[in-house]
């Protein structure tokens, strides 16, 4: 990856120097974090698609998870006088100086996927992010609707302890559970967002709950842990998707494969398309001067087995997840 | 007095029994076993099965540590071999897949051994290089995504069973016997210990210390590669970002719990594997207990501290004195 990232960085640098912007065509610089996860790779490829759909010249700079690289990229975008800058900030603080430079150069900045420290609110145009509390709530609502009045013992696979996404996805789910006395989270343990840990933790849940007979549903903070949990259930002789309901978050391709096989029930999408709404905002801002709200929330769409999972799998698997 | 001094292995066996009892207390069905699809099923099996990667790592690590070295790269080597195995699994037969994955481990071990033994680098620095770069290589192979496979042969390595015993457990047992037979069935173990005890003196006495050091790093690499293949087979996919992450620390911990000194000079294969089992028995117990995950690391730290205190010669010596005073009073 490091080599590839290095190539990517050099290639972007070369592109930045070589390509003059076409007259009339928007040129936007996008400082991307780097390839930290499959979702991030998918976000990069969807951003490219969305930009070419709108005939926007999108220059992506890969920061290899380093803030100083992002700051360098933003400065170079300012020097080239791009029309707008997209930033997926790797950390939430330390952006004031460079964003002030962008503001002085009258280049609007849109934050993608992650927010920055509130002290810099006036330094960017808007932030396009998902609401992870809402994602947890959507997962909870689906479960509440599916089980109806029946009593249901839920086991929960949490993300990494202390990660804000994990805390929020738990909070959203718990808020729905609190409203439905028939739902009860009987076990909750961290699976560190990985398949291997998801499987290991699910194995222990099954043993602790009398071979899994008392488990009615599994809620996982991400799809990868759910894929591991599904394997654990199958090895224990349970039928995930039938005996045990499953709901998780992210909508990565492999969960659609499981859904198509009838082994998973639902997933809530964390859309990799953050650039689409951001591009629309910039177009409106440039054309008519429309100032968008400070926060644009992306849709947390629910997918179930009735959404033709095989087709979604085929369309998603090429995105680099 | 002599009975109170820790005999080798006594402290570890005692610790394992205590942790097993605690597990039994938090989860009454802990020792229950049944057959599920021709495979034994129960918490004890989980302990053995989940403990396999660290047990395999500790088999290589204990020999490296016996030469006064350390190998920080084993987690990264797991990621590399897993990535190679998963990438080849659906297009090649199992022998090719295994040869490629284990071959990669061998090359990684040779690299570490070359840096330490031929160039004379400090082991902690030499292996740190591969620890950092290795995960990058693995990500390069998988292109940053989780590479999945369906090859039944490779899946069997992670999820199959031989006479009810999970295949990973059988492999770990086989490797323990093989390693034991090679190093203890010959003078090799003694030469490794001599190298760790005093490399210069051993060299002058005619021990090929360079070859010894190179060999233990190679073996450590092969063991790590095998652990990586099993970890990938278990989840039917290679996750380069997370496979084997921080497991080098668990492997070192297993070796230390097993009573092997980081200053080299002596080692016990069996106790290192027992150390890995102690760690996993504790992990499984924590998962079964139902405590909030925020306590996981705290519980682990306290248990590890207790196990190491049990082995501390000073502390057990003090306990002996206390017992003697009590004895004279009575």
Automatic annotation (TrEMBL), chain A:
Q: Does the keyword Ribonucleoprotein apply?
A: no
The UniProt record lists the keyword Protein transport: no
Q: Where in the cell is it found?
A: Cell envelope
What keyword terms does UniProt attach to this protein? Signal
Q: Give the Periplasmic binding protein domain ranges.
A: 28-275
Signal peptide range equals 1-23
- NCBIfam families under this entry? YtfQ_transport
The protein's name is: Sugar ABC transporter substrate-binding protein
**Which SUPFAM superfamilies does the entry mention?**
Periplasmic binding protein-like I
The UniProt similarity line reads: Belongs to the bacterial solute-binding protein 2 family.
Q: Which InterPro entries match?
A: Peripla_BP_I (IPR028082), SBP_2_dom (IPR025997), YtfQ_transport (IPR054837)
Q: Which organism is it from?
A: Bradyrhizobium iriomotense
TrEMBL record, chain B:
Question: Chief subcellular site?
Answer: membrane
What is the protein named? Sugar ABC transporter permease
**Cellular compartments annotated:** Cell membrane
User: Which superkingdom, per the lineage?
Assistant: Bacteria
Q: Which InterPro entries match?
A: ABC_transp_permease
Mark the transmembrane ranges: 48-65, 95-116, 123-141, 161-192, 213-233, 245-263, 270-291, 297-323
Renumbered to this chain, the signal peptide range is none
Note the CDD domains from the entry.
Answer: TM_PBP1_transp_AraH_like
Q: Does the keyword Glycosyltransferase apply?
A: no
Coiled-coil ranges per UniProt:
none
Q: How does it sit in the membrane?
A: Multi-pass membrane protein
List the keywords (alphabetical).
Answer: Cell membrane, Membrane, Transmembrane, Transmembrane helix
Please provide an example of a Pfam family that matches this protein in its UniProt record.
BPD_transp_2
